[in-house]
């Protein structure tokens, strides 16, 4: 009977890749920080990005995009 492997890092669940471009100086600072704190750049970035994504109000954005903007004359308002 084959032994079940154990050890290693536990799964973080279903994950997907994204790519973005940032200024080189920001990238360099991020990589240096990751090295100093012993974390991966991916984990550090996800820790900041995921809560922001969770806070996005899609319904409000949908309504705002569909709503017509009104011009207000500041002199008479």
Automatic annotation (TrEMBL):
Domain of life of the organism encoding this protein: Bacteria
Region named Disordered:
1-21
* UniProt feature, compositional bias: Basic and acidic residues: 11-21
Q: What is this protein called?
A: CopG family transcriptional regulator
